[in-house]
Structure formats: C-alpha cells, structure tokens
Design goal:
- The chain is of the alpha/beta class.
- 31% of the residues lie in helices and 17% in strands.
- An 8-stranded mixed sheet has the order 1-3-2-4-5-6-7-8, sandwiched between helices.
- Strand 6, helix 7 and strand 7 form a beta-alpha-beta unit.
C-alpha cells in the first residue's frame, strides 16, 4: 500500500482463489479467525486490519472510502482466471463496494453482511457520542474508538458519494442481513435492491430475529455462499446472472 504497511493474515491454499474478509468499525482482522480456521478447499482466506486499526500503518484514521479502497487494491490478485471474493461486514461493506466500483474488472464476487449503505438509515448520534466531541474526551478514548468515531462522522457524505457508483459493480453479489439488526437496519436490503444493477444480485438471505452479528451466527451459510461464487469459474458476467435476487 503506497501510504503504509497493510497487516494481514491468511490461511488455506496459497495459490487458490483469494477470499478477502473486511471488518467493520472499530474492528480487526482477528474477528474473522473462525473463518480463517475453516478455509474452503482450493481457496486462500485473507483477513486484514483496515487502515486506522490494528497493526496496519500509518496509525491515523482514514475515513475516505476511496483511500480504504486503495489500501485494499494490492490484495486483489488473479489466480487461474479467478479474482478475489470480498466478504464484508458492517462498515466494511461500503469499503468493499467502493473497491468493487473502482476496480470492477478485478472482482470475483461480493458477500455483504449487515450492510451499511443507505445514508438515511445511519443512526443519529446519541448524547454520549455527542459528548465525545470534546477534545479532552477524544484524547482519553482508545485509538480504535477515536478512529471509529472519525469514520462514523463522515460516513453519511461518503455513502452519498458512493450511491451513483454502485451501478459500476459488475461481479455477483450476495446479501446477508438479520431482520432485527439495530446497528445497520434491515432497510439497507431494500436500498441495495434499488441501487445495484439487478443483474448482479444473486441471493438475498434474510435471517428472522437475527441481529448484527450474522457473520458468526450464520457462518456455514456464508461459507456456502463463498463456495457458490468460487464455482462460477470464470465468474459469470451480469448478462448471464439471474434476472433478480431470490429471497430466502
């Protein structure tokens, strides 16, 4: 990465199709350890610390989704005609979408879990969050929390900028969302269905009663989705995909 050093960990086949796991905010690559402990045959699973978190350098916050996409770009490697599949959770989903919009020819698929893409569904700052606007209180916050706040403050404008770019995404997309998600409301699913090219949406998995932590409660379903995308070799073009997503 041109601006620093990207910290990442990997498991599985070093020459297989790469699957990149993108954490939310705050977060770390280590959150994806259950997945890295169960890599699928013939695939390389990679999780990295996004800029501003963990061991990735430099240590300051990077609230610009374009910068986050540029940091991810060096990991987008082709293996025997297959480009990486991105698996993203929460704040990681706009990072993945921005990267897929900026590098559409280098994507093998997107798995969006608990997506945070609708700027109108962002939670309003609570009194506690407003209190942390104090310079002194910000200084007392852990580094990761300060960076998470910086990302959250600018996210709405970043999502507004991202919205018209979503139609550039050409790879197959799968969506996972809990109906009781209070962090990233279920209404984000309708936003995705409205703003993405219908030809790229393959599956929408709605989990009744589930909250924001679908990656760990529905791990097997996500692994199955990764396997399905892997088996599309070479990845299907949009005009060959199903005309609309299937609800489950």
């Amino acid at each position: 990465w041109a601006k620093g050093a990207l910290a990442w960990r990997r498991a599985g086949a070093p020459d297989g199709q790469r699957v990149i796991f993108i954490h939310g905010t705050p977060g770390f690559a280590a959150e994806w350890s259950p997945f890295l402990g169960s890599p699928l045959p013939g695939m390389e699973f990679v999780a990295y610390d996004r800029p501003g978190f963990g061991a990735t350098l430099p240590e300051h916050a990077f609230p610009d989704l374009h910068e986050q996409a540029l940091a991810l770009e060096p990991l987008l490697v082709e293996r025997e005609g297959r480009w990486p599949i991105l698996v993203a959770h929460s704040y990681g989903t706009p990072v993945a979408c921005r990267a897929a919009a900026e590098f559409p020819e280098r994507m093998g698929g997107l798995v969006l879990v608990g997506a945070a893409l609708d700027p109108e569904l962002l939670k309003r700052p609570s009194p506690v969050k407003k209190a942390f606007r104090s310079k002194l209180l910000q200084w007392l916050m852990p580094t990761e929390m300060r960076h998470a706040r910086t990302e959250a403050v600018s996210l709405k404008s970043q999502l507004v900028e991202l919205a018209p770019m979503l139609r550039r995404i050409r790879c197959p997309v799968m969506v996972f969302h809990g109906t009781e998600d209070t962090f990233t409301p279920y209404g984000n699913v309708a936003y995705i269905q409205k703003h993405f090219d219908p030809g790229v949406l393959q599956e929408v998995y709605s989990f009744e009663g589930r909250n924001h932590f679908v990656p760990w409660t529905e791990m097997e379903a996500i692994l199955a989705a990764i396997q399905q995308l892997h088996e599309q070799s070479p990845p299907l073009q949009p005009n060959k995909l199903a005309p609309s997503a299937r609800q489950r």
